[in-house]
Structures are given as structure tokens and as C-alpha cells.
Design goal:
Number of helices: 14
Number of strands: 9
Strand content: 5-15%
Mean pLDDT: 88
Largest sheet: 9 strands, mixed
Helix content: 40-55%
């Protein structure tokens, strides 16, 4: 395109798009017809001299009630999006637990960093018994599941069933031997009669699950091959909600998926911002009545469920 002609297209486009002059005014000032102005404007867009970006207004995000209805569970509570994300999830989960725990019930609690923080926001609870749902796992800077159960036992004032064992051991034989020990056996059997359980969900991926980091590369590979997308209390879930064993299940000392399914009220805390597959798996498995999530995961879930546009504010068009 001759440089002079290109400059003319840019000039006409500037007058029309930036100076808000009409086609008639532009035609008069350049000594051409308004139909030629229209053709030049089309040519300027076609040649990339003019680009147009359309930014749609942000869609209203799906509410917790909408998400709960779409998932078919009792409630979804979305933590505030301000401040520290884990702290906000912990505060929110504490509020849910305080609302649903009643005098004389049996409360089971697994462990995660978020649930550890949650205990700090429970200054009191109705008098209830507390069961440790998963064996201990060492985490830098964390108190572990034993300290969590001790803290909740003090708050609730009832009987506690600690689970004095590692969450994961090297072999199925070692796990079976530990399960026969009276204290461990009592705690595992106490999970048969839970009224409320509080558990955390992790994506089956590096940096998303404490368990993922603690097993061998061969075990991770086998679990992934078995279809694992998420982990809850050491138990692995496939996308359809079925157990994704991969040989790891027999080495875990924790509540079983069936025990969670049999628990009337399960509060599931899902910290991952991208944990849509895990949440769908947990719901399909029947181990989530009350879901606690952050705003980013709520947005992704809403998009997955057809309730909201996942990227409403970045719909760009160039012409």
C-alpha cells in the first residue's frame, strides 16, 4: 500500500473514530463522497490501521445458593475475597461448623493447614465428642492432626478419639498391623457413628495435596493412572466420584470414603482455586453436604455449571 494512501486512511479514521466527525463532514473536508469515506474506513479496519476492542461488562457471579442447587448439595459458602485466602476459608469454615454442631453429637475432623487455622476461630462449641479422622502427617510450620484434635477437644469439652498413627505407611502389612492396635482401632471405629465431619479437599497434583508430596513417584504415577483427580483425608477420588486406589489405599490410616458417605453432614473445605474437578468428584462421591470455597473456585465452578461466564471481562474483538 502506498505510504501516502495509508496516511490518508489513518487520517480519515482518526477524524471519524477519535474526533467523532460524521462521514459527511469528512467527505466535505477531503473533497470526496461519503460513500468513499465509508469504503476507506472499511479498508482501514481490514488493513489493521484501525483495531476495535469490545470489552463486555462482567457477568454477575453465581451465588452460593445457585451453586448448591446446581451441585445438588445443602449449601455452598463462598469465603470473602479480601485478605489471606486460607485465613478467610478458615474463618468461614469455623462459622459453618459452629452452626451445625449440636450438643451431644460426634464430630470428626481431618487435617489440613486450613482446618488447623479453623480451630483458632472456634472459641467454643456445644458439648460434643471429637474424632480424629486421619493419621498424622508432618508439615513444616504446622501443628499436625494430633494438636488439632487436642485443641478441638478442649473447645468441645467432650470425649476425644485421637488417632496415634501416621497417615501413610510404607506397606499394607504395616498399616494392617497398626489398625489392630486398640487406640487406633477405637478411633477408626468411632468414625462409624459420626454426626458431622469436617474434611479438606486437595487436587491430586504437586503443591495441591499434602499427601501427593509424601508418597513415592511410583505411587503418584499409579494413582494418576487409576484416575485420581483429588484427595480427601488420604483417600483418592476419580472424576466420577469412585475410589481411585492405585495401590495407595491400603497404606492409609484414616476415615474411609464409605464412612464419610454415611456421615449425615460433611463440611468440605476446598482451598484450591482450580479445584473444579475435585469438587465435582467429591459431590459425585457423596462426601460433601456443605462446601466452603473461595471466590476464584466459585467463579470457575459457576462457569463449569453454566451459571456464569468464566472470563466475562476479557472478550476482546479486533477488526
Amino acid at each position: 500500500m502506498p505510504e501516502r494512501h495509508e496516511e490518508m486512511l489513518a487520517q480519515i479514521a482518526s477524524e471519524y473514530y477519535l474526533d467523532n466527525e460524521s462521514k459527511v463532514e469528512i467527505a466535505k473536508s477531503h473533497g470526496i463522497s461519503r460513500f468513499q469515506v465509508a469504503r476507506y474506513l472499511d479498508e482501514a479496519r481490514r488493513e489493521g490501521i484501525v483495531t476495535i476492542t469490545i470489552r463486555r461488562p462482567a457477568a454477575h457471579p453465581a451465588s452460593g445458593a445457585q451453586l448448591a442447587a446446581a451441585l445438588g448439595i445443602e449449601s455452598v459458602t463462598i469465603a470473602p475475597g479480601t485478605g489471606d485466602a486460607r485465613d478467610q476459608l478458615a474463618r468461614t469454615a469455623a462459622g459453618i461448623v459452629a452452626d451445625i454442631v449440636t450438643d451431644g453429637c460426634r464430630l470428626g475432623v481431618s487435617w489440613s493447614r486450613t482446618l488447623q487455622a479453623m480451630a483458632g476461630y472456634l472459641p467454643d462449641l456445644p458439648s460434643c465428642d471429637v474424632v480424629q479422622l486421619a493419621g498424622s502427617i508432618s508439615v513444616t510450620g504446622g501443628g499436625g492432626s494430633g494438636s488439632l484434635i487436642h485443641r478441638l477437644g478442649q473447645v468441645a469439652g467432650g470425649r476425644t478419639w485421637p488417632l496415634p498413627a501416621p497417615l501413610i505407611v510404607e506397606s499394607a502389612d504395616t498399616a494392617a498391623s497398626l489398625r489392630r492396635q486398640p487406640e487406633i482401632s477405637d478411633a477408626l471405629h468411632a468414625a462409624d457413628e459420626l454426626d458431622v465431619a469436617v474434611v479438606s479437599l486437595g487436587d491430586w497434583a504437586a503443591g495441591k495435596s499434602t499427601v501427593y508430596e509424601r508418597v513415592s513417584p511410583a505411587q503418584r504415577k499409579a494413582a494418576t493412572a487409576a484416575g485420581a483427580v483429588a484427595e480427601c483425608s488420604g483417600r483418592l477420588l476419580a472424576s466420577d466420584g469412585s475410589a481411585a486406589d492405585g495401590g495407595l489405599d491400603d497404606c492409609v490410616i484414616a476415615v474411609t470414603l464409605q464412612q464419610l458417605i454415611s456421615t449425615p453432614r460433611v463440611v468440605l473445605v476446598a482451598p484450591s482455586e482450580e479445584g473444579v474437578a475435585g469438587v465435582r468428584a467429591a459431590v459425585a462421591a457423596g462426601i460433601a453436604n456443605h462446601l466452603v470455597i473461595g471466590p476464584e473456585l466459585a467463579r470457575h465452578l459457576g462457569a463449569e455449571l453454566g451459571l456464569a461466564d468464566e472470563n466475562p471481562a476479557t472478550d476482546g474483538a479486533t477488526a
